[in-house]
Amino acid sequence: MEEKTLKFLITASGFELERIRTALSDNGIPNDSKPQKRNFSAKAVTGVDNSVQDIYVAADDYDKAYDLCVGIGAIKLEGEEEIISDDPEMTAPADEYEEMPDGKRKAVRIISVILFILIVAAVIFGTDFITGWIKDLFTK
């Protein structure tokens, strides 16, 4: 049986490595990855392989694998740029906050402290009431 020649496809690491290898395998493209020399991974300790690895595919499948990597964004074509739009409808709306005046800020803080104290008191008194009620059930 004739052994297939491997051809270098891309270098990746971490999540990107797993993403590329999974995409290749899902599309029926056999692949292999080899760690670059002098590159250590803490996979035994962390469970995550952070080593930089070269991904190889069979020479016959190279064009299909290359197109797949371009399709998933792992390989950028020459002249390809990330599209950043200045159109406000295309971008996510930014949260806009208005600066609160000092008097209003102090009032909000004071009211928040008072409400917190009331909530804590309600929890304590409620617990005391329920405990007393349960105690009365068993002592009568």
Structural overview:
The chain has about 140 residues and is α+β, with helices and mostly antiparallel strands. About 45% of the residues lie in helices and about 15% in strands. It has four helices and three strands. The chain has helices at about 15-25, 45, 60-70, 100-140; strands at about 5-15, 30-35, 50-60. A three-stranded antiparallel beta sheet has the order 1-3-2, with helices on one face. The model has no long low-confidence stretch (mean pLDDT about 80).
Topology record:
Blueprint: E1 6-13, H1 14-26, E2 31-35, H2 43-46, E3 52-58, H3 62-71, H4 102-139
Antiparallel strand pairs: 1-3, 2-3
Q: What would the keywords be for this entry?
A:
single chain, alpha+beta, three-stranded antiparallel β-sheet, elongated
Short description:
This protein is α+β, with helices and mostly antiparallel strands. The protein has helices spanning 14-26, 43-46, 62-71, 102-139, and strands spanning 6-13, 31-35, 52-58.
Helix content: 40-55%
How many alpha or pi helices?
Answer: 4
Largest sheet: 3 strands, antiparallel
The pLDDT mean sits at 81
Unreliable segments of 5+ consecutive residues: none
Shape: elongated
List how many beta strands DSSP finds. 3
Q: Structural class from helices and strands?
A: alpha+beta
**How much is the radius of gyration in Å?**
31 Å
Taking the alpha carbons of the first and last residues, their distance comes to 91 Å
Q: Strand order of the main beta sheet, please? A: 1-3-2
Strand fraction:
5-15%
- Reading the helices and strands in chain order gives EHEHEHH
